[in-house]
Write a structure and sequence with these properties.
five-stranded mixed β-barrel, about 325 residues
Chain lengths: ~325, ~325, ~325, ~325, ~325, ~325
């Protein structure tokens, strides 16, 4: 492209002047051939980067400044402008080419944790180190030392769409939960802290195969048919079976932690929590997911410029409730 | 005991004259020390045999004709009479001794299938033989050739209390389902008969460890915490992992059959049926269990001497509905 | 129209080149006057044929090649092209005239069973012939001999939108159910095959007045206010009352089969199944409807060119579940 | 019996001195042979009269003062005393003989409306007379002129156990509803008063065959399998079909009123109210049944001597809620 | 504007010729800057008057005939035409100016009761006068004599969107309910008419602060967080606390009437009705709201020109049921 | 009584030898006159102390060693023995007299917290002191400085039957929650710790008037009709209204915390949590109540002598689930 314009992220477009030109790197999440009413062909795209996704239209696919050879999964550099159609933001792309290898970091193309993954991982390992039960410590070490598992664990999102739906989201969620469990465990003497932390670290591990995050976040077919609870329980069981002296009763408890962590049959747990550690895991997991949804919604409202007196949009993860940001609403003068 | 009386089964007592003496062999399912209002000690028992269970009282535990040394799990010979208390049948035991080894067959002490187990097993194996898919056939053969598994599969009840709650009930239910699936499969060309039959044969296999049937039918702790769906899926997965060339996609489908066979999340399936074979398995399994409950209730009403114009009792497995026995009600003259 | 182009069906348009001209005969399901933003009048239509329905626009209603005199319910010949608007296929019509009488078969204008209706009818009658109970056989013969009823029974769809929503769908569904019931009945000796088949043949007969299928498939007002269960029960009752010696108990059972066949109060059955035949009818009816929905969805995915690794769309009749086509997914090499 | 004692009703026994002798006429609702722990035979009875039912025991069935020849359904004269066992009142019967024909009125043996049935019937007919629509008036007259129907309509209870569960209860409930509907109808001009009253009078008419009230209140087999909604709709339909000029649209509405009056599918209505008259019928029917349950519970608490500050027992017909009797609680001094 | 055209209300536009010019006064409910695909700025508005709301577009905001200085909440005079876009009516505005003070009545800009508010208020007061209980009469007089409360009570809508969603709707609904309660109360002697009427008059009084009706009907933040039940109970409690001799038991009952009037926990009542007056209030409130929804839907269908044989649209307040207008459907000839 | 025997608490009786004599002080919770089958009068009692309640029988009320003058609510000294009847423990009382004033501490007669109330109160006040928001601190101080409120707050149970159902239970539960909230609050920066703690301290304060704990734990009539949510909100609102400068927005938030703390409409909260502090309060309150139920059940099983391999009884507060005591089950050797 001739002159370089300001590079922009998708989330910035909401507040960008309509019609003003921008440049940006994007991941192609969808590419479709279409025709206008007047039988002119055009391209319908969904483009994404780490801040979100947006529909885009190329009205002049024959323009030489539009590359021919890009497909779903490619990273492209695009120049265009934003406009609103029927209240929905849309991108109009005037120029587009494939990004050069090395020109842009792939992890910039998908939403990603704002924390340092290395630090999160170190935190996770230090929780493992803090365990006193040698069998549970060995189980966790064995799993996290597996380099394939570890690589996926560091990258996986915690969900396709709801809470922590970004690269590193699983790890971020688990570390948050470890910290929280560590605060809550001493309050109830009947809790076995080691079993609780083991449950925290393994409860969602099946997501590393339930989801794929190559091009956007998708369920795998295996993930759809089996679910992360079954996948995770199988992974844990296989590992425990490989440890010569793992106590059978403890194995049953670890599996029960994974199986029951959704807390209700209708949420896909085949068993309800029947030990105190499983009960607490379900509560904290649910609380942490919901608090993340609250925080995410407050951030979104801030980006959208909502006034402190306005309630948020309806939040799916909270039964479509609207929320109020306490601190903004009270403001300085009142508290 | 001095003179031998007619030996009797528990189910016969309902129509036995109250107060008339009988002899019988029973399994001791419960034994408790109690005291009467006037501070006299007595024994409270639950005795069982293959036809049912009954509360029993020994009002004179000090009587020399009452053995001292029997415990829960023992088989005893007892002499006594039946009476009704507050509408509930009860046994009064006057004499009791431990049964001699060999004097009575243990399998007579618990409810048991009315079919020949050897024949049922042969039927099961012939269904396996009829499979064309070599991987599925190998999977089933491997599992059923395991002598520990096979022994349990032949003995296990299909449930603790509901349908097929008797020794051999699991096998009887599975063979009935195989026959039914074999009739239904050709009606829908999109069904893979081999996968369907594999699902039928493996769907409840986890019950061999979810339940125990040594002294009465009970859940094991492992069974309570994990459930037969998880136990069965793990058994199948371990076996498929042990077969060098088992196709991964097929493995996912087999596991999905087991996981989804309850048909609803709230019934403990972590996944809903998403392939036609799983859908059909859920329907046939549910139908067969309900038809068995209907047949069982009709038998019970016949034993209780209900008139053809009376509805049955409320049937738990059918949402506490009452039923009508069509054939009895219509009788000869009307149809 | 000047030169004849290739005649096309609506289902073909999905894979037709956008903008390319075609000819076709269609039934007018909706006709509305509209105005563009620039105050130009245009026509908004819904056109249908046996393969589906589509929105159509006539942007130049004043064009002499557009007939003035067509209305909802007419069959027209139209020339136009297809295009996609906001992901939805749409037809643009350039020429349109009323079809001549005889030029096209009316039954080509609505979705219709792919089976031969005469053959289906013969199959139905042969099931009736196979009954041994003379009262039930007389009841069915009396109803099916009524030429008005018979004509409607052969034409009626089984539903407005869900399973078997096409001309002849009711008959096709009933014959499938008869075959299935015939396979299942011998498996359970407590079933009265004649009563079961009678229930199968009469359970949905009220649909011949609940639905209308003149112009599209619609509910009648009577159908909305009374429902096919009540309409069918009344028809059966009236017929049984007209047979001098029909046994009263048998009449109650036949009515109960019709009333309870939806299996749950919340599905509109005023009574739950209380006899084994009603229980089985509800299961098989539900299974056959769901299997038809599965088959229909697999066909749709094939037409849409989905890959074997993709799940289907969400299927309304299966609680909005997505499905996987087992046979495609496994493919040749794996099974 | 030698000397005549004060005759007593069952409801009076709750406040009767335990152990004091009484005489009374009762209907035998159940008769069972039993044996005591010490093998002595005794009789277990349920006796009833218009004020209620009670368990009774005859410990000396061999006593010559105890008749041999009485059965379920007989009216007997009994002498005995009341006592409480485990908090449940029970009768001990010392003497018992069959009542002589004419000695006692059969309608005294079952709970019965406290209103004059003749007067209620006259009120019902005057509501019919007040209708202006000739077709609806003819329909109602035709039905109520049928002497079999009329006799049953005057006797039938409105339910087996819940509201208005007494002879004449159906008529009492319908007349109360007519009065209420008559008050409410003018408030909403869009209501057709004639159709509303027709619905009120016919909505529960199926109960005359759903229930039997010969010996206690029971469901008939036909009632269990079809339900009063279907039985009533069939009766109405048959009558309308017999009237040469009954308008078809009006017939549909009358049937819809009957079918939808339970207001919810899960309460057994196959259709929800879709016309204003059906909506109002459902509301008033529900309100009247609940208000009768409230009144009945208040009466019961008064009989039991509850204090004005105590809540009532849990009321089944009101979701097991406890109630407070406003007027008693406020008392004189507070209001 | 140059020449005056016919002034029009929003509800009239549905049947107005598309493209034909009209004039009208409207309240601006929303004003947004937008850009077309071709980067031309335009204005997106929602305009309302007492008959409804409509989206409007100003494609030429730079036109000197379009005022610059109007905002949300202003009343404007606009000239334009109506057209349908994707089945949704839309206004195209060509000229627009601020309305002069006095030129139009603000109450014409929001939907408003069709009754005379003064008369409704007088009716309400006469119900208060009819009370015999001096404490309840004093309570109501104290509240309604408060001029701030009285002003709001006369203006408030009864809901944001559902029944009686118009200025004066609260008062209209309450007066309708008073009349209805007055008719029903004498039918049930156990009802305290004074307490019932007090409940009717106070049950929704919290809506005067739950809703705002300055610019459209909105929930206040306080309304969202506390709800009208809590706001109303607090208002009543504060007033009763201010009356020196208000009986404590009566206070509890009045509060209970307000708290329980939604009749179910899941509808936001923290307590279920436990006194007869609360039970009746809940029934009548629900009935009146639903009958108003029926009447409103029938009016809407009349305006839309639906035929008497057509069912209405789905009505949200009636579980998305469709309704039939009895009187229209039967017509003259049939009844 | 002549010779003093070992004084015993009710909970000890479960493991006491049947028939052995004991002495004890008990609160009379119920006293009823009864008659045996043989017309002998006897007394039926419910006696309680801080460890539980038990049914008791006095078979010889005429015995001079049985006091005549005791009533419900009195404390008595009784001598008797325990026995089991139909699996239910029962006391037989041989001697009974009124306890002398001062002979026994009334707080020993009802279950009571095992913590020191003075210390709990000091902990509560120190949490209040830790608040930074002056308005919230003033609100809490004003309420807790009220000596009537403070006295009740220190005594009240937290429930009638479920969690913390003992004297001081409310305070114990609140202090536990404060500690827990204090641990969790810093984990989520968007939480206002002061508002959260205020919610914790006030959420159940209405229980001081919803419940009475003079003789056993009962609901007051006011408590039944209004509930502790409404009573607590009214108390908080009245106090905030009495503070001249309490910020209105903050008042709304405090009330919202109380109203929404049950978390679901169907649990009696009229509003769902819409601010983060309310969401967290609901989670922690629920968790703490459930963990207390778990701990209580484990204690009960220990008292009942259950083996570590046995699951607990079904726990009402946990949806009738059975639980496993992790630590006991694993035992020493396994972990």
């Amino acid at each position: 492209m001739v002159g370089e314009l300001k590079d922009i992220y998708i989330a910035d477009l909401a507040s960008f002047d309509e019609g003003k030109l921008f440049d940006g790197y994007f991941l192609v999440l969808l590419k479709q051939q279409r025709t206008t009413k007047t039988n002119k062909p055009y391209l319908n795209l969904i483009l994404g980067d780490k801040t979100g996704q947006l529909e885009a239209r190329i009205w002049t696919p024959e323009d030489p400044r539009i590359a021919r050879d890009f497909e779903r999964g490619d990273i492209v550099k695009a120049r265009g402008s934003a406009s609103r159609f029927d209240d929905r933001l849309q991108m109009k792309v005037d120029q587009l080419r494939l990004a050069q290898p090395g020109e842009v970091d792939k992890t910039d193309m998908l939403p990603s944790t704002t924390y340092d993954v290395g630090q999160l991982w170190a935190q996770l390992l230090s929780f493992v180190t803090s365990l006193r039960n040698p069998d549970l410590k060995l189980l966790l070490t064995t799993i996290l030392d597996n380099s394939t598992i570890a690589a996926s664990y560091r990258e996986a999102p915690a969900a396709k769409q709801l809470h922590h739906a970004w690269l590193g989201g699983l790890l971020e969620h688990v570390v948050s939960l470890c910290t929280l469990a560590d605060r809550v465990a001493p309050h109830y003497p009947l809790l076995d802290r080691d079993l609780l932390l083991t449950g925290v670290i393994l409860h969602d591990i099946g997501k590393i195969r339930e989801l794929s995050w190559e091009v956007g976040f998708e369920y795998t077919v295996e993930g759809m048919l089996l679910g992360h609870i079954q996948i995770g329980a199988a992974l844990a069981e296989r590992t425990m079976d490989s440890l010569p002296a793992f106590p059978p009763k403890l194995k049953t408890l670890v599996l029960h932690m994974i199986l029951s962590h959704h807390g209700k049959l209708e949420f896909g747990s085949p068993k309800l929590p029947m030990i105190p550690e499983a009960l607490v895991l379900n509560f904290l997991d649910d609380l942490d997911a919901k608090m993340q949804a609250v925080a995410g919604e407050f951030d979104k409202c801030a980006r959208e410029g909502k006034s402190p007196d306005e309630l948020t949009n309806k939040v799916w993860a909270l039964d479509n409730r609207q929320l109020l940001n306490t601190k903004l609403w009270l403001g300085k003068s009142n508290v």
